[in-house]
Write a structure and sequence with these properties.
The protein is mainly β. The protein contains no helices and 14 strands. The strands form three sheets. A seven-stranded mixed sheet has the order 8-7-10-11-1-2-12, with no helix packed on it. It has a five-stranded mixed sheet with strand order 4-3-5-6-9, with no helix packed on it.
């Protein structure tokens, strides 16, 4: 499964080449979004068993899927994801489908305009999480996946 994020404001799509992609403003993130509205470690995108998931990591300005602020959610093709002020459309290509051209996210995003690109990806393709979790390290989260309706 190939997954990419297409900026809604225009620009090149960004292919998610790793199974786990850490998104944030901090330089060590896999996908760096440089804007004050993005938390240092904002969210994580996970590809697993042919599905794509997003989990907000306690960000200040939140992560939204199709307009709904979420703590975690499953993403489908053509869903819209808003990471702070950055809006993307999810593109999913299944095995055997003709490939679209998109760039691996080998840069920091300063602006969604295609002319504002710089290098910000770690680029080594390795997963930095080498420690295994023990049985007592994982706990159920009793919070709902989506936030209550925020209409005023």
């Amino acid at each position: 499964m190939r997954v990419s994020l297409m900026p809604l404001e225009g620009g090149r799509s960004l292919e998610l080449v790793q199974d786990l992609t850490l998104v944030g403003r901090q330089e060590g993130c896999d996908l760096v979004l440089e804007h004050k509205s993005v938390s240092k470690i904002h969210c994580v995108l996970v590809k697993s068993d042919g599905l794509l998931y997003v989990r907000d990591l306690g960000s200040t300005n939140g992560t939204r899927v199709n307009g709904q602020r979420v703590r975690r959610a499953s993403l489908s093709a053509d869903d819209q994801i808003l990471i702070a002020k950055f809006a993307f459309r999810v593109i999913v290509e299944r095995e055997g489908a003709p490939a679209r051209h998109c760039d691996p996210y080998d840069r920091t995003i300063n602006d969604l305009a295609p002319s504002h690109e710089s290098n910000g990806h770690r680029g080594n393709g390795e997963n930095s999480d080498s420690a295994a979790l023990g049985p007592g390290d994982v706990h159920n989260n009793h919070l709902p996946d989506a936030y209550p309706d925020e209409r005023h």
